[in-house]
Design goal:
about 150 residues, elongated
């Protein structure tokens, strides 16, 4: 998952991210021992339990076009959602039938990103803007048409 966010990360960067974002579990005593440099460590639990969500979020910090804003990574919008803060879009954002994604701020899309609006779904840009996060173009918006009711 980390490399899907940024395939240019080195093996060491991936390891650092996993170790730095691990959850401390087991009621163990985690300490800074001077040897393990990515946070507190325990001889039985290591850095702790892998936290995939936190690791993916941390991987965004290594991404050249990401500037710390909220993010939407390859997700499905299955209920109505309103973006009111600047958001970084990465991957495919799919708006399911019956759901509406309303953009009231800036949605900055990565070059490999796209928005798919399923038949019966809606994308509303209300005072916001959808733009490229990087220098290149992003993959755009695909609207699945209703062949029985095209308008």
């Amino acid at each position: 998952m980390i490399l899907s966010i940024n395939p240019d990360l080195t093996g060491q960067q991936v390891r650092d991210i996993i170790e730095q974002t691990a959850q401390k579990v087991g009621g163990c005593n985690y300490v800074n021992d001077g040897v393990h440099t990515n946070g507190t460590w325990n001889i039985e639990m290591g850095y702790g339990l892998v936290d995939a969500f936190a690791a993916v979020k941390k991987a965004l910090e290594y991404y050249p076009c990401y500037s710390g804003e909220n993010y939407a990574v390859s997700n499905h919008v299955s209920t109505d959602r309103i973006l009111i803060d600047t958001t970084f879009g990465y991957g495919t954002i799919t708006i399911d039938s019956g759901a509406t994604l309303t953009v009231k701020s800036v949605l900055r899309m990565d070059k490999n990103s796209q928005i798919i609006v399923k038949k019966g779904g809606a994308l509303v840009v209300e005072g916001g803007i959808i733009t490229s996060a990087c220098d290149g173009l992003w993959q755009g918006i695909l609207i699945e048409e209703d062949t029985h009711n095209p308008f």
